[in-house]
Amino acid sequence: MSRRSGRAGEALAGYAMLAPSLFGLLAFLAVPIGVVVWLSFQNWDLIAPLRPVGLANWRDVLTDPDFGHALLVTALFALMVVPVQTALALLLAVLLTRGLPGSALFRVIYVIPWVCAPLALGLVWKWIFAPSYGALNAVLGTHTAWLTEPALALPAIAAVTIWSQVGYVTLFFIAGLSQIPDHLLEAARVDGAGPVRVFFSITLPLLRPTMFFVLVTSVISAFQVFDTVYALTQGGPQGATDVVAYAIYHEAFTAFDLGHAAVMALVLFAVLVVVTLAQQLYFRRRISYEIG
Amino acid sequence: MRSDERRRRVRGALAGASVYLVLIAGAVLTLAPFVLSVMTSLKTSRQLATEPALAAPQPATGRNYSALFGAGEGFGHALAVTALVVVVVLIGQLSFSILAAFAFARLRFPGRDALFWVYLATLMIPPSVTLVPLYLMMTEAGLRNTFWGLVLPYLFGSPYAVFLLREYFRGIPQDLVDAARLDGAGPVRVLLQLVLPLSRPVIATLAVITVVTHWNNFIWPLIITSGNTWQVVTVATASLQSQYNGNWTLVMAATTLAIAPLLIVFLIFQRQIVRSIAITGFR
């Protein structure tokens, strides 16, 4: 009797404790997904009342060469950032796990940019890249317009992104490296493998779970870059840095076409899901191949 | 044999030196933008134009900072609004996430596992997708350009925090919970007197992550507020830059003020943060 009432009480306490968080989850994550789908079939300019327009928004966005361009720029950005960032982070992690004195200090220094507001860092770099009175041109003795030259602007934003995130990614590789048992590395060395060989045939394969996590999260965050673009170029010059997240913002809050923006957001969502699943499939196949 | 040993030692020292060379180069590249921007913030526009960009300010001036706190800019107000947002979101997110995580980890009730799957699924939803619909919902609720418009979407906890806390709470030995239960403690007392004190590290970690995320938040405050009343520090910095385009000494003072408070928090808690980032990535 008392046991049963205890169990009912436990269930009641469970639901009560869950209630606020569940409300937030539904109201601010689940409902918005429904709203954005519904909004993608409406015309809304923030002033006039909403008006259903059927598939018109979808047709407009999917045939809009500018949106195709934005997707391309975003993919290009991810291709510039992710490989370099991952390789640099791996290198730093290897160097920082050699037990050298001072490693902890370097680790902290490298993480500093990750803690700071990307918007503020973006503005710092906007000054560094400035054609006159900027630090970079002063160091190089040049007068390059880094951010207004279409061929240079996207690489510049990629460089700032890598600079601000590489220390953070390094921490994951350090954690991954520290989980590799010493005796495996020792065994390979005893068998006469040099450090390069040990790294590529023992360390790297064993880092696969870390690598998967790092690649998935880096790609997802690269596909959503906004603050740095807003601070440095606002999508310019001539659309050279018009990434999808910035295009959505611009469509919604500068061009005031929220229906179009809703479609763009849903396309971005679909792209992210596909990219994540593709990475998962790739890694799963590689891992099972190895076991089999 | 002996010369072999010495050769190996020399090679080791050389390797160590080259490792340090790479590490120091990395540290210089990481820190230089911070040092340069602070130096620039201490110059007058004239000094910036006439002196080399890399030279230390001579003499240093606090004029840019006093201008930011002067009548027109209201940077102090933006800092205060940001601090208020961060504190309210921190309290709400931590308490509601702790309650939910405890329910998932330690209580039994019908539908628990299905609900947890819903939480996991929402981890996949990127913020850039919910931005436009949230803006529509807040506008309809009349919350545009209000304090509640700024904090409501984050107040009730995050699925990520619930997930992280649940993993940690599950690691607490069942024996301890059973003993407390036998002593007649209900779920609330078990949470407050047993689970919370044992979970201090993970809660501290989450607190720091929440503070960093919301101090740095930009796009949501950018679209949901307008004007000075509820302007947060990132938005104030961005609007200052577009207003005084090219006035780099003033803008660098603003970025320094936007960055400094978090940098101080980070340096105080750096050991926990660095250790915990690794934990939060893997379970």
Structural write-up:
The complex is a heterodimer of chains A (292) and B (283). With 292 residues, chain A is an all-alpha fold. Chain A has two domains: 2-39, no CATH class; 56-291, MetI-like (MetI-like fold). Chain A is 76% helix and 1% strand. Chain A has a two-stranded antiparallel ribbon. Chain B folds into two domains: 2-63, no CATH class; 70-281, Orthogonal Bundle (MetI-like fold), CATH 1.10.3720.10. In chain B, helix 3 (63-69) crosses helix 14 (248-281), helix 9 (174-182) runs antiparallel to helix 10 and helix 13 (233-243) packs antiparallel against helix 14. The two termini of chain B are 47 Å apart. The model of chain B has no long low-confidence stretch (mean pLDDT 88). Chains A and B meet through helix 1, helix 3, helix 4, helix 5 and helix 6 of A and helix 1, helix 4, helix 5, helix 6 and helix 7 of B.
Q: What key phrases describe this protein's structure?
A:
heterodimer, A: 292 residues, mainly alpha, MetI-like fold, 2 domains, two-stranded antiparallel sheet, 13 helices, B: 283 residues, 14 helices
Concise structural overview:
The complex is a heterodimer of chains A (292) and B (283). By secondary structure, chain A is mainly α.
